[in-house]
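Final report, closing paragraph on structural work. Over the funding period we assembled a curated collection of sequence-structure pairs, and we close with a single example.
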Amino acid sequence: MPDDSSTTGGTWRTRQKQQTRQIILEAAKELFETLGYGKTTIRAVAKYAGVGVGTVMSHFKDKASLLSSALMGDWEQLLAQVAATTPPEADYRTQLLHATRIFFEYYARRPSLSRNLLKEALFSLEVQGPEMRAMDQAAREIGVRALRAAQERGEIRADVDCEVMHLALFGEYCFVCTVGLSQPKPDPDQMLAMLESLTDLIIRGASPAPPDQG
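Its predicted structure, as stored:
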């Protein structure tokens, strides 16, 4: 029989490395939540995770990459949840509000972490690395495609620029996140109600005119 011990060993090492990486990420998220990004250090993350500083550095080159990875990991899970639970037959408005509710509920569960993640993701050039910019671009393309599909279904006028409309919708989403996360205990229902009102204004302006009843 062929000796597959090297393959088995490699698989075990890979799995162990992935587990260690996840332990470090969870430790970093806890410290980002309790201490904030500015006061969190690589040494503190290593101590909290129960590993050496060198082990942390072997997975993440610096604190910015730690935050970026934590943010992208959580967002990827949320996007997968959105994809798995959004009713495909629903109109654009329903799909958008369904997706944002999932994100708002996450922010409400971990408000301090979310404040730090969003602040650094939006305003820190150090954190906005190539991977995060690529993820932002991919999310933008998904949003524009969803609007164009709604346009093809007749929910949005043919003359509306879907890229511009996506920017408007994303801007209002960021505004609601800022308002909601400024509260001691963010309320996802209140955030969704605010977003719904703002979204309706934009969608109403982009909707086809009702047929002439005259």
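Residues 5-35 form the longest helix (31 residues). The mean pLDDT is 87. We thank the funder for supporting this effort.
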